[in-house]
Amino acid sequence: MEELRVITLIITLSAVFSFLIAFPIIKILYKFNITRRMTVDFTTLIEKRNLKIGVPIMGGLIFIVTVLVFNIFFNPYRDNPGLLLTLFIFCLSALLGGFDDVLNIYGRDRAKPKSLSRVLTLIKVHKSTTQKIWMIITLPWSAYKSFFYILGSNPGKGIQAHEKILVQSIAGILLGVGLYSFATRAVPGLLWIPIANINIDIGILIIPFAWITVLLMSNAVNLADGMDGLAANQLIMSFLGFLFIAVFKHDEKLVFLIATVVGSLMAYLYFNIPPARFQMGDVGSLAMGALLAAVAFILGEPLMLLIICFPFVVVLLSTVIQGLGRRIFGRRIFAMAPIHYHFQIAYGWSEEKVVMRFALFSMFCAIIGLLIYSLH
């Protein structure tokens, strides 16, 4: 009962703090014109899409500031290596997202990457031997950029997908190395397989596993941040699921951390309910996705992400499938991706209906995840 009182107090205080700092943050965002632009007109497909023009982005700053303030100054376990590692990954991802948000407003348009076939043709026909040698040397980089373009990445003014992946890779590798080298867990490579209810020790493979998971979760949450209230609802349900697991495991440092996340997300959602006062932006979505992955790994339950965070998995998969369908097969698989837009366009669901049904879906997945975890 005492632990429950502490958790509810942390959630309440973080929610109140986030609510109070939201007003000056909104004012700052308007002052510097950090607002949504419409680079592509979707109004023929989604009638009310133009209503989001002029809405401040980078609203995720309210929960980023809250989480950092509460855990750096008030978390009793703020010197714990696992907590410090988690907060560093959270900060690094937030900086990446914030930089991208600002560039999308004040930056210049980026050129589309040359296709791999185009680069190979240039190598054959280019008259300059020096240029040919340079293109051969940089061929892996060209292939790397081309790969993400095939998946559906389109250059705008901000950081391109292949550039984001590099920074996110640093975060993921740091998480993996930290888990394996700095003893943030008793058995760094030990994984519990849900449903099968078995434990396996993957050893040093925990490093690439953490790397890939951070990449996938960061971008999954980023893709889900497309409708007012959508990402925030899903994040609250996901973090609540891991909050229960942290309580079961008596991991007080993460109980405190996740409680501050839930409280600050509740305050953010108050302002993000349609019509939104501000939107999360990459600064919030990339940070929260990375934090979800880090929390799951520090708890030693990364595979629970596939169940508790299954709605994010669906969003990510729909985008990959759509990109592959367009670039390889020359046709769309969905009316629009990510999949929440497909429901809006193909079935005529309102944005509010999509958000509420995804919120219920997220709640269901969190409950199922906890039910499966109880079999551990």
Detailed description of the structure:
This protein has 376 residues and is mainly α. It has one domain. It has 15 helices and two strands. Strands 1-2 form a two-stranded antiparallel ribbon. The radius of gyration is 21 Å and the shape is globular. The protein starts with a helix and ends with a helix.
Whole-number average pLDDT? 87
Class per helix and strand makeup: mainly alpha
Query: Radius of gyration, Cα only, in angstroms?
Result: 21 Å
Number of strands: 2
Secondary structure tally, helices: 15
Uncertain residue ranges = none
State the domain count: 1
Largest pleated sheet: 2 strands, antiparallel
Helix content: 55-70%
SSE ordering: HHHHHHHEEHHHHHHHH
Distance between the termini: 23 Å
Proportion of beta-strand residues: under 5%
Strand order of the largest sheet: 1-2
Q: Looking at the structure, what is the overall shape?
A: globular
Task: Identify the quaternary structure here.
Answer: single chain
